[in-house]
Amino acid sequence: MPRRVQDIVPGDRRGMRDVPVPRERKMSRTKDIVEPVREIPIHHKPLAPGVARRMPATTFAPRQKRPRNRLKWLLIALSTIVVVGIIGFIASSYYSKASFTIIPRSIPLSVNGTFVAQAPTATSTLSYEVITVKGVASSTISATNGPNITSKAAGKVTLFNSYSNKPVRLVAGTRLSLDGALIYRLTGSVIIPGYADSSGTIVPGKVGASIAADQPGQTYNMARSDASGNLKIVAYQGGPRYDSVYATLLTDVTGGFVGMKKMIDPALVASTTAKLKASLVVSLLSEVKNAIPEGYIMYTNGYTSSFATPVVGGTAQNSATISLDGTVYGIIFKKNDLLAKFSGGQSATAFGDFAYTSPGLETLEITFTNLKDFSPAKKTALVLRIQGNLKMVGTVPVEDITKKLEGISLAGTQSVFKSYSSVIESSTGELVPPWAKIPNNSKRISITVQGQ
Which residues does 412 contact at the CB level (< 8 Å), separation at least 6? Predict the structure, then answer.
């Protein structure tokens, strides 16, 4: 038989279903709101035999929704955006950068013509100057000892008479001196014609003559190019004819020697001398180029050279020493003078008070047509054939402009660049960020000049 299940009835004759449910307090999810749980009354009905009693369903209070303060969060968000924007604006302005590109003003020039350059005078429009550098080179060659000899240096001069329109006669043996030092004598008597008066201009009379050193020795050897002054008549010193009757070297004075003569193959002397000349020119030209002053220019073939007669000496039995004195004359021009000539004079005012450069000036093709006849001592004129293209470009004062740009707006830069219009063709600028002003720190201002 099946087992029968029934309630256990306590002593007071009440069943478990008759025990009242205690009241409970349940916290809702809403802060500080507590809802009591409703007590569900239990109704007792008699049950049929064999039917179990069912517990009634318990219902709970509905959960209240949490209120949202949308306006509060909106204000917080807006405030945050404003603060971040202000901080970003200040930071971007503090770390702003400005960059400018400037195209300098330039004037193109084309040159193709023949020009005459004179020694510097008050009236010369194009002049040249000369840098003189001297040196000595020597070499040892094979030779044999010869006899002891003594010889005097000799050469030719041109005598001038600007003292009188009547002839002046000088006898053989008349002494001439260069700067009162070495004495030379005329080897024959000469008559110097009187000067000519051409419209008030004195044209001295002149005649050629031969001279010889007063004493033997190498000391009296003298290159024509080295004679920086005139030879004066010693007998006329202190009188009116001393400065108006004079002589200039027509050739080198050579041949002075005292000592043992070396016997050398002439071909060997010639080839050795040629090598010494070449090496002297190279070394002396280097010195000339290092001596060119600021603002001057020297072209590649703008020089001439002269050499004294080689001196052979030495005491060794089977060798001799050849020494050669050489002089190089570098012809230099002032850049501003050349540009003034090429531009028709507009270079002086083209850029106002600002400086300018001249790209292309160094690469012009220049030919000295009379360089063989050029005499630095006589300051003869130079004829130049010049052709090529060059430009005059204004020099933009970047540092001055940078200082004036500090702290101003991008629009205000127009007036700054306008004040430099004589050297600036155009300019563009960029500012990062675009709403900021140009930084006060010059290190954050970049200026690029095209072509410089």
Answer: none
Could you tell me the maximum CA-CA distance found in the chain, to the nearest angstrom? Answer: 186
Report if pTM > 0.90. no
Print the domain residue range for 184: 149-260
Q: What is the pLDDT along the chain (452 residues), one digit of tens a residue?
A: 444 545 455 555 555 555 565 555 544 444 444 455 555 555 555 555 555 555 555 555 555 555 556 776 776 777 777 665 555 555 555 568 999 999 999 999 999 999 999 988 767 779 999 999 999 999 999 988 888 889 999 999 999 999 999 999 999 999 999 877 889 999 999 999 999 987 878 899 999 999 999 999 888 988 887 777 899 999 999 999 999 999 999 998 988 888 888 888 899 999 999 999 999 999 999 999 999 999 999 999 999 998 888 888 877 888 889 999 899 999 999 999 999 999 988 887 889 889 999 999 999 999 999 988 888 878 889 999 999 999 999 999 999 999 999 989 888 899 999 999 999 999 999 888 887 888 888 889 999 998 76
CATH of residue 154's domain is: 2.40.30
- For the chain, what is the domain count? 1
Which of 449, 351, 336 shows the shortest CA–CA distance to 106?
A: 351
Residue 443 placed within a domain = no
C-alpha to C-alpha distance for 220 and 417, rounded to whole angstroms:
67
Q: Yes or no: say if 368 and 384 are a contact pair by the CB < 8 Å rule.
A: yes
- Strands 445-449, 97-104: pairing kind: parallel
Whether 186 is in a domain gets the answer yes
Owner of token pair 């194009």: 126
Angle value at C-alpha 164, between 160 and 168, nearest 5 degrees: 60
Per DSSP, the three-state class of 151 is strand
